[in-house]
Each structure stands twice: as structure tokens, then as C-alpha cells.
Amino acid sequence: MEQPDWHGPLTEAYEQATRFLTGLPSRPVGSRASLSQLRASLGGPLPAAGVDARAVIAQLASAADPGIVASPSGRFFGFVIGGATPAALAADWLTATWDQNAGLYAAGPAAAVVEEVAGGWLRDLFGLPAHASVGFVTGAQMSHVTALAAARHEVLRRVGWDVETGGLHGAPRITVLAGADRHSTIDRALRFLGIGTAALVPVKVDAEGRLIVDALRETLSSLDGPAIVCAQLGNVNTGAFDPIGEICDVAQTAGAWVHVDGAFGLWAAASPRLRHLVTGVERADSWTTDAHKWLNVPYDSGLVFCAHPAAHRAAMGVRAAYLVHAGGDERDALDYNPEFSRRARGFPVYAALRTLGRDGVSALVDRCCALATRFADRMSGHVLNDVVLNQVLLNLGPHTADIVHRVQAEGTCWVSGTTWQGNPAMRFSVSNFTTDESDIDLAADTILHLTT
């Protein structure tokens, strides 16, 4: 067996990585290079002769650096992107080193057991049923695809249709109900699954984007046939929570499957102070969340849970003669997600959870929410939403969209733009474990200065 030079390139990568991470407090948060500059520094023809591996890593880091957005920074407030805790990042490095194919138990026993253990810890943190199945996927998008595939299987099975065999042609029509201010990944999942966006019936929402239960009840009463209701915990603009307990009452009385989009809001269940926001969540049929948001593990890391493991497995499972399938208590991950060969995403999740513990996860969520409230207080008079979680929505006047771009270019912090109720707005999300009061105050000072 050949013995490559691991030391050279890995040492260079370690040095580059630690230089980047320790430099985050003083680094401009946004990208500092144009598209043409990045194409020039990273492009060119493929060389005929190979280049020394350590030199390649050094050159890659140097050329890419101006185009790297410092999203792990405590002053990155765009989208809903967490950082990566030291333990999670270290476990991710080991994940790449071990290079396990986590589809089958036989190909990665430790990877399979780590997912089993971490999945159980998460079920407990979120207060979900102990029997719920778990899948580790890339993010909320594929989590929705997986959960809604299980829902598609089950609601059609109940009316006598085997969708895995017969497909959707000729099948009873499925109706999907979701709030008018749902996340676009729901629509995209329906496209992927062949259900189609025409099957979506938008349900009225209130001023914060919360689904109105009476409107859901009225809409459901007019339907006949299989139905799926999608609830949202954590509106991507306002952070608002649909009343999940009431939604389960109404939807399940009508025989509908309830799917929860909890991409970041489900983490409120881990906080005793915020758990009231998700009262009744355990009664849903499937749940989506992301670990690369509030758990602060590296991308990509999404999770799907299903209260009906048989439906989950029927939608996702696969058999082939050449595969070594689990035959006893072992768990084959490919039975619970849409991938075949896949990265062992459970290792960073396991490391993050074990390092933080139950109290640490709760403290992380509470801290980010308290910092969002601090920011909202500093921006008093500009806040558009009721700050119940980690999201703050701002109206900075007729030049709001321009101010967003100016903040991004200035570099002190990074924020997102959005459109809320037809008007441009600034979206400020606190999701990083390193963010502190000084980061919030500096961001507020910078935005206020650029607004004047």
C-alpha cells in the first residue's frame, strides 16, 4: 500500500484554517472580491503536470480568501446561518478523514450508531415521540422532500393507492394546505415529488405570518380526499410560530397528515423558556429541522423525523442484491433518506450535542434570542415584527434595500434583504454561538450610521 504525504497538505490546511478562524473577530464579514477577480485567481486551464499538494492547498486558500464570506463570524446576521463550534468542526474534519459511506451499516458501523444515538438525543430535546424515525439529510429542503414523501405514501395508502408501485398517474389527488407565508422549500419539495404546486392551497395568515386556524378549519371542511397540512415553526422573516397544537387538532380530526417546518424554530423546544411556542408539536406526523443553523455544526446538516416509521421506510427504502443490508437491530440509513451513498453527517451533530449538553443547547438558543431582543431595542422605531425568537425585521425607510447593500459592502456585519408584505425590509438573524453584546451593539451602530 502506498504511503502518500498526508502531513504536508493537512498541515497547510490546518494552518490556513486556524488563521481564518482566529482572524474572524477582525475580518470584514462580506466578500471582498468581484466575480471577475475570482475567476482570474481561481481559473485558467488545467495544468498538464500536477502540482505539489501542499502548494495547491496554499494557493487555493490564498486565491479563494477574498471571496470567502465570513459566515462563521459572530457578526454574520444574514439568512439563518449558524457558525461551527470547535467540537463540531473537529468532528467534521474526522468525518472527512474517515470517509465513511453512511448509507449502509456494513459500510460504516460507527457512523450508523452515532446517527442512532444523536437522533435519539434530538428526539428527547425536541419532545418528539420516542418511536419517531430519523433521517440525516443535507438540509431542510431534502428533509421536506423526505417527510412529504412519507406523507404522500401514507395518505394514499389510506385510500388504497400504492404510490411507490403505481406512481401518481391515476392516483387520488392530494391537497396540501400551508400558510400563505410558508417557506419556498415546501413548494419546491412538492415539485420534486410530482405532487405539484397546483395541489397547494394557501391558508390565510395574520400580520406576523402565523397560519390562522379558523381559516384552516374552513378550508379543510370543503375538501374531499387525501390531505397534508404544513405548519411552520419560525417564520423566516418574523420568527413567528404557527399554533401547532390547534393545527394538529383541526387537521388530524379531518384525517390529514401534519408536517412541521421547524428548520430553525423547532430548536425553541430545547429551551424551557421558549418551549411554550411549540406546545403540541409532538402530535404532528413529521418534522423538519437543521443542525447547521442553531446547533452550529458545519454545512450541510439537516434532519427529518417521522412519527410513522413504516411510512418513512416505505417511501425511502431500497433493496438490491449486491448490497449488504442490515439483518438484525442494525440500522441502514438509506432507508430513511433520499440518498444512497452519503457523508456521515452524524459525527459533527453527535460532537456538538455531547459538548453542549442539554443545558448548553438551551443556553445557546436563549442567548441568541436575548441578543435579537437587544438589537430590536437598539433599532426601536424601525422594527416591523414581534420579536419572539431570533429574527428581527426592519424598515429603514424608502432606501431600505440600498442600506442593506451598503451594510454588506461596509464589512462590519452582514445582513439579508427581504420583502415583507410587499415592501423591502432588512432581515437580521442571530444564530451564532460566538455572537455577544458587543457584536450586536457594533452592528446596530453601523446600521444606524449608514441609515443617516
How would you describe this protein?
With 452 residues, this protein is an alpha/beta fold. The protein has helices spanning 7-22, 35-42, 53-64, 86-98, 109-126, 140-157, 163-166, 184-192, 213-221, 244-253, 309-316, 346-378, 400-410, 437-451; strands spanning 133-137, 175-179, 200-203, 227-232, 257-261, 286-290, 302-306, 391-394, 416-420, 423-429. Helix 10 links the parallel strand 4 (227-232) and strand 5 (257-261). Helix 1 (7-22) runs parallel beside helix 3 (53-64) and helix 4 packs antiparallel against helix 12 (346-378). Belongs to the group II decarboxylase family. Pfam families: Pyridoxal_deC.
Element layout with pairings:
Layout: H1 7-22, H2 35-42, H3 53-64, H4 86-98, H5 109-126, E1 133-137, H6 140-157, H7 163-166, E2 175-179, H8 184-192, E3 200-203, H9 213-221, E4 227-232, H10 244-253, E5 257-261, E6 286-290, E7 302-306, H11 309-316, H12 346-378, E8 391-394, H13 400-410, E9 416-420, E10 423-429, H14 437-451
Parallel strand pairs: 2-3, 2-4, 4-5, 5-6
Antiparallel strand pairs: 1-7, 6-7, 8-10, 9-10
Family: Belongs to the group II decarboxylase family.
InterPro entries: Aromatic_deC, PyrdxlP-dep_de-COase, PyrdxlP-dep_Trfase, PyrdxlP-dep_Trfase_major, PyrdxlP-dep_Trfase_small
Cofactor: pyridoxal 5'-phosphate
As residue ranges, the low-confidence spans are none
Extended strand count: 10
Helicity, as a percent range: 40-55%
When the domains are counted, the total is 2
Enumerate how many helices there are, as a single number: 14
The global form is globular
Q: What Rg is obtained from the alpha carbons, in whole angstroms?
A: 23 Å
- Biggest sheet details: 7 strands, mixed
Q: Roughly how many Å apart are the termini?
A: 66 Å
Pattern of helices and strands:
HHHHHEHHEHEHEHEEEHHEHEEH
